[in-house]
Amino acid sequence: MMKIKKLESKPFELSARVTMQLGRESISSSTVAISELIKNSYDADAEEISIKFLLDSKGVNTLVIEDNGLGMDYATLTNNWLKIGTSNKVYNAYSPVKKRLRAGAKGLGRLGVDRLCKKLQLFTKTADMKAPLLLEVDWKKYEGVDVGLSDIEHDIYEVVGKVSDKYGKSNLDEKTQGTRLVLHDLTDNWSDSFVEVLVNELRLLVSPFKSMNDFKIKLNIERDGKNQNIEISSEHILDAARWHVKGMVDTDGNVGVEYHNKISNETIKLEPIPWHNWIKGAGKKANFGPVSFEFYYMSQGTEDLKRVNLKAKNFREFMRLNQGVRLYRDFFRVRPYGEPTGKGDWLGLGFRKASSPGGISQGGWKIGPNQIVGSVIISRNENAILNDQANREGIVENEAFDQLRVFLIKTIESFETLAHKDAKQNTDVNLSEELAAWVEKESKKYSEEYNQVLNNISNIKESKRSKKNKGKKGSKPKLSPEKLLEAELAKIANLAKRQEVIQDKVNDLIATYSEQISDMEYQKDTLSNLASIGILTISFGHEVRQHSSLAMSGISSVIKRLNRIPEPDDNIERCRRLSKHALEGAMYVDNFSKFALDNIKPDKRKRTKVNVLTVLNYISTMLKDTLDKMDVEFKIINELSIDSEFRVFSFEIDWESIIINMFTNAIWALETQTSTRVIEARLEDSVDEYVLTFADNGVGLESNSEENIFLPMVSGKRDKSGNSIGTGMGLAIVKTHVEDHMGGQIQASNCSSLGGAKFTIRIPKR
């Protein structure tokens, strides 16, 4: 049997040279290395950073990077900066003062300095330090040395007096804070084209909203005595957006919104709308104005990125740093609003997208947090009710904050509906037919030309064999077979390029059909879910009716026995009242289950001449208890001509669905109404059509929503936080019944004679 004897325990040792090599491999280029250093300044809560190149074509080149961030004390410098791959940023995801989401996370960025220069001087100071620290790193110590990483040491000094050198004035003194990096003897040739690559890299790190950018980068190039200042701005990246939306609420509570389609260059501008008309159920007046809001829809399409000459990788980095809707008070960022997770996603964009993940041409499309770059601007003086929390971690979530959130969500929802309609128009069946015709035509033409080329090549081969192409003596020489063959091969190359174009069009065609199929599948699934709920309701209806019958019978017996008591006391009277309420409740449940079971009768799914007035009376009777509990007065106004009946060749179940939807929408609109609640149904006719009008005196429809509410997955019902509630399918189904099944029309109006919404259904007489 083998025996072992322990000698000692030893750790892995890292070679200094290998460690530096790993660092270099983790940083793909010198421009990325500088970008990582800038991210360190951003993470240190710097507001401004200066980058200065001192380039001499005949001498040594130097780079100076200085920021006004928090700086480092001795412990941070030795325990964090000199520690490779530190986990500090992993466990502290946000910066200490400005609460920025840290841009750098690997702890390897400082190793990138090795590929930039041969020697580094790092000056740093915190606000409470009396003197700056100086760290000197000579990267040549790591070259060709077979020693451990910890065997190489670097000198640390305390600087007496103000930091100064021949590379320009430093802002570090006893009253300031920050970090200054001096990179001596640069290893790369920083040509104009190389600097341009760096500029594009740095633009990803600054906010595209210039006036609200709390992190400014200044770049200065001093080349052979000539000085050049380069502005670092990312505003141009917003040109990749497909839509730009601006909204505002003024001091009087009026709402204005402007939608600009950057592809078609069309602008839709809504005139100022009173708050209570723009958003229903969120108060009569906005408590938070004035506020301005703007956002860009960034879709990351190939053509979009081409417009700004941006790679997909760089675009994703830009969006990672700038995505979401951010809140600014007096142009200063209020955190965490706009961060991708937690309280930062204060508008619930992530949840909305997850609940409706379909593409833009699909019904119910929602914009994702990684597709939007937006800003909200408020003022401390004019928005005093939007107070900061005591811990400075956001705004107090009072009624004004809820209203602000409702305004922003409604503005985004109105854009989503508009963008969806625009995208759907571009991917309609007509576009598919047009693409299909183009592909067929081009493919046929391509095939003919390709066969002609093959024919020509065959003739050239035959000509070469028979030497007919030499020509007669004294005649003008013809092209050689080689030249002719070269010309035909050039045609083949051109045909290959055209084939790529055809393939791209085919891909577009496939994508178009895929979008349409996905859209239909999504709507089908939603309707299937609603149908499943209906089936469950019917299944439970059988059970409910049995138990409700037992309950009604039992309660009726109790009431009879109580009524026989000759001199009832207060307790008996109370039992009578409670029993009566219980009986009414059981009858309500029984009627509801009876109604659900009646819906599955076969005769309701057959086309017959349906008497709409009869259906209307039936539904209103079924809902009588609900209407009475809400103190709703329901009126039927019959203005049909003499001897005329509102009879339509249709499915009875369709009319039940239509009328129930009209009732449920009206009941919801009346919930906040404190005065008399009224629902009115009016039946009229003319020579060629029947007209059914539903009106109420509720909150009415939101402005400019009269058409959109009939779209699938669009709901005008909201909770107090501004989130849409309901399926958004009710009125879409009603529209299908009226227009597709009966050949009629349905219209919505924001103002009725009663003061609320009005729906008008017109059915042709047949």
Write the layout of secondary structure elements.
Elements lengths: L15 H11 L3 H14 L4 E8 L6 E6 L6 H8 L6 H4 L21 H4 E9 L7 E6 L16 E4 L5 E2 L2 E2 L8 E9 L5 H12 L12 E8 L2 E6 L11 E7 L4 E8 L4 E9 H4 L12 E7 L4 H6 L4 H11 L1 E6 L2 E3 L14 H7 L16 E7 L20 H28 L2 H38 L14 H83 L6 H29 L8 E5 H11 L1 H6 L2 E7 L8 E5 H19 L6 E9 L3 E8 L33 H12 L3 E5 L8 E7 L2
Parallel strand pairs: 1-9, 15-17, 19-21
Antiparallel strand pairs: 1-2, 2-8, 3-4, 3-8, 4-5, 6-7, 9-10, 11-12, 11-14, 12-13, 14-17, 15-16, 18-20, 21-22, 22-24, 23-24
Helix pairs in contact: 2-6, 12-13, 13-14, 15-17, 17-18
Which key phrases capture this entry?
seven-stranded mixed β-sheet; ATP-binding; 766 residues; alpha+beta; His_kinase_dom
Summarize the structure in words.
The chain is α+β, with helices and mostly antiparallel strands and 766 residues long. Helices cover 40% and strands 20% of the residues. The strands form five sheets. It has an eight-stranded mixed sheet with strand order 5-4-3-8-2-1-9-10. It has a seven-stranded mixed sheet with strand order 13-12-11-14-17-15-16. The protein has a five-stranded mixed sheet with strand order 19-21-22-24-23.
